[in-house]
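Study this one:
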Amino acid sequence: MEIFYIALFCSLLLLLGAVELGKSKKDRIITNAAFSSFKNNYLFVYCLMMAGDWLQGPYVYFLYTKYGFSKGDIGKLFIAGFGSSMIFGTCVGSLADKYGRKRASITYCITYILSCFTKHSPEYKVLMVGRILGGIATSLLFSAFESWLVAEHFKRGFESQWLSITFSKAVFFGNGLVAILAGLLANFLADTLSLGPVSPFDAASCFLAFGMAIIIFTWSENYGDPSEGRNLLIQFKAAASAIASDEKIFLLGAIQSLFEGSMYTFVFLWTPALSPDDEDIPHGFIFATFMLSSMIGSSLASRLMARPNIRVEWYLQIVFLVSTAALFSPVAINFFITSTGQKGGSLTPTGRLLLFAFCVFEACVGIFWPSIMKLRSQFVPEESRSTILNFFRIPVNIFVCVVLYNVDAYPITGMFGMCAGFLFLAAVLQNRLKLAVEKPRTIENWTSGTETDSEMEPLNA
């Protein structure tokens, strides 16, 4: 491996250490022992759930190729997963509001374990069933757990600001550190121990089963609106009405869809962008570098959210603009610089510039996740939280399916330009959200000031 990759990784590691160790008292929120116990329980479970998810990523495509399927057949399997998340996952995930978020979290574990079991079969139909189950599980992962956390947090009487601690730590550990360790464990099982590409899926099942046991014995149940007459159609109507009638919820969903759509598209594009001439690049190490960048972002987010004078609505605009510049870099670099790479060669100077830009984007991803979770906890109504969160993911799944289906039809620079455009639009909508949040506050302050003046007039007289 080239020294450049190691130097970049070590530099980011030092930066992460500086960000974490450089936190002052202003960057830390004082809590209590009860909250720490609650937070640690959730983070441990969440990390186990994310481990079950991350372990499957490195070898799923390779496993399909080992079974002899073509690129087109594999693409259909991936499209089935996202399509299932959009259709079936939205329905199943929405049931969490009525029948309980704890039950939905357990359902996630069972569904994903069954999906892992299907990987032992080389039959295409069985693998397709596994992708459908995996799509349903993904919707539950990104709705049921957050919904349970927010409801349980307030049910126990904890302060709302303390949620930002749990959100930032969940991204730091679950989406960062666990992702790196899961990649290393998957490589150790499949290659070092020569257990084959199915072994990471078996390991994922073990993590999910262990996490499910903790959920069963330590979590209490909470609901959105469990009323008997509230069927799925009524839940959908209520969620749609909430999105349509509240500008803040609508803007939040649009912003999330634009950012996530760009993020998932980036996942498919970074490899051909860094090695346009089939240069030899260490994919696993680069992935670990991206996750390290994401950890830096989540650490920065925890510092920002700890400051009461810094609002999420303000700094997310900057995050989206920086993300826009980072994903527009392949377009700009390709316009001014011609690639001089060779097949099997090392990363070109152009590729190194892009790698820096992509690390910046991943840091923005690390800031985005805990920040958007914080906004969702403020604006999304509790009675329909899981349903609305799944509604937010429908445009994302449609977008990713379209991209997967047409990934070879457009030049890679055009795809990056499209993502940059989406991120810029997210920045515009974020500014609109900031104004929508500040408007009631301004009126409230004006009213409060008027009342104070009227009360003081008799004293002055």
Residues 187 and 193 are 9 Å apart (CA to CA). Confidence is low (pLDDT under 50) at residues 441-461.
